[in-house]
Automatic annotation (TrEMBL):
Keyword annotations: Membrane, Oxidoreductase, Transmembrane, Transmembrane helix
Name of the protein in its database record: NAD(P)/FAD-dependent oxidoreductase
Family annotation (Gene3D superfamilies): D-Amino Acid Oxidase, subunit A, domain 2, FAD/NAD(P)-binding domain
Domain FAD dependent oxidoreductase: 17-373
Length: 378
């Protein structure tokens, strides 16, 4: 512990009822639910970064519940009933986030979502089209109406090249990720949740009497700890089924008369793009080298970035000059199962992680669920 801490500092800033580790969407939602349910709880969120430094401030801002080809893949993994439960969680999760912060604070815009199929995608498009009715039937009891339809008439007006088919879902939307996180942090602070940044947690030790959180700033003491460090969770809780997956992104400079509006998936969701403030944000390409992208290190590779640029030139903006303004990456968490992990991993140490690249839809509920587990244990 830093040698210059005062008696006051140690007594006031290092003792809490609950310590939450990680200030992403899941950690903040856990803190907010706990504080709203039990206002007297003294809660702190410890974040290693100057800003949240995982996925929640780095993502693409799709408020979506799965493109048709993604749903097909997921149904093969978890069965029809399992998939329905997942879709319901994502849909209700989005409603929960919107209710918590309000559409204005998210800049929520329901432009709809599209899945693109290029001329060489014959087999996939046939399969997907044949499943439109099936997935419409599955989601109708959940969202109250059908969602998927073919929208090939829109291909020309969107200006794409080499695209043969589009499947449209009018219930998909986009948000401003920065505004979401800014407002989540402000909401947490307004509820008197204390957030400390630049505080890296290195170890958590719990016994019958107390839980001790060892950090680069000293030891914090609490009754219960919640680990919401997502892709980085194994450094604190080894053995969980969590694999990191880096997502690389780029954004163009503003483009005059940009025709593209909405959220778009391509190649089974491995590529995704959207409009934002007259720009195109494009990400994906983990499938080009799964091993290299299964990392907790931030960074960009020329393989992925060049492929993203080629996609812009050849398919998305074929007749429009563009310049790249920024590139970045974020780290997601994946696992064998599509459900997040929400558990008491060790006595008094809880964990909520692994939203499988769908944290905007799943993060609020995941945070709430782990908070409920903790409340039951108090
Ligand atoms: C490029 C990209 C695009 C994405 N696009 C979408 C999308 O369009 N729609 C969607 O629904 N989802 C998307 N996602 C996924 C979504 O962002 C995540 O599922 C979600 O943000 C996970 O939230 P989290 O709170 O679990 O984790 P994180 O946001 O990763 O939060 C974990 C936090 O823990 C902190 N931390 C880690 N280790 C420690 C430690 N030892 N001590 C203290 N703090 C620590 C990290 O700095 C981080 O802030 C995308 C992700 C990426 C990377």
């Amino acid at each position: 512990m830093s040698s210059n801490l005062s008696y006051w500092e140690k007594a006031t800033f290092f003792n809490f009822d609950i310590v939450i580790i990680g200030s992403g969407i899941v950690g903040l939602n856990a803190a907010i639910h706990l504080k709203k349910t039990c206002p007297l709880l003294k809660i702190i969120v410890l974040e290693r970064g100057f800003l949240p430094s995982g996925a929640s401030t780095k993502n693409a801002g799709f408020a979506c519940f799965g493109s048709l080809s993604e749903l097909m893949e997921q149904e093969a993994i978890c069965g029809t009933e399992g998939l329905m439960l997942l879709i319901e969680k994502r849909w209700k999760g989005l409603l929960k986030l919107r209710t918590l912060l309000g559409d204005e604070n998210l800049d929520y815009r329901q432009f709809g979502g599209y899945e693109l199929f290029t001329n060489d995608d014959d087999a996939t498009i046939e399969q997907c089209v044949s499943k439109i009715e099936h997935y419409n039937k599955l989601i109708t009891p959940i969202i109250g109406t059908q969602a998927f339809c073919l929208a090939n008439d829109k291909i020309k007006s969107l200006g794409f090249n080499n695209v043969q088919n589009l499947i449209y879902n009018q219930y998909e939307a986009q948000i401003d990720t920065g505004k979401m996180m800014f407002n989540l942090i402000q909401l947490a602070q307004s509820l008197q949740i204390f957030i400390l940044n630049n505080c890296q947690v290195n170890e958590i030790i719990s016994d019958d009497k107390q839980t001790v959180i060892h950090t680069n700033q000293g030891k914090f003491y609490c009754k219960k700890a919640i680990v919401t460090t997502n892709a980085f969770v194994k450094s604190l809780l080894p053995g969980l089924d969590v694999e990191p997956g880096r997502g690389q992104v780029l954004i163009t400079k503003p483009i005059e008369n940009l025709k593209i509006e909405g959220t778009f998936h391509y190649n089974k969701g491995f590529y995704y793009f959207r409009n934002i403030n007259d720009r195109i944000l494009l990400g994906g390409g983990r499938n080009l080298d799964f091993n290299a992208e299964a990392t907790t290190e931030f960074g960009e590779t020329s393989l992925v970035q060049n492929t993203l640029e080629m996609l812009l030139t050849n398919i998305i903006l074929p007749n429009t000059p563009f310049e790249i303004d920024q590139r970045w990456s974020g780290i997601m968490a994946f696992g064998k199962y599509l459900e997040p992990i929400i558990t008491e991993a060790k006595p008094n140490i809880f964990c909520a992680a692994r939203c499988n690249g769908m944290g905007i839809a799943m993060g609020s509920q995941t945070g709430t669920d782990v908070a409920e587990l903790v409340l039951k244990s108090l």
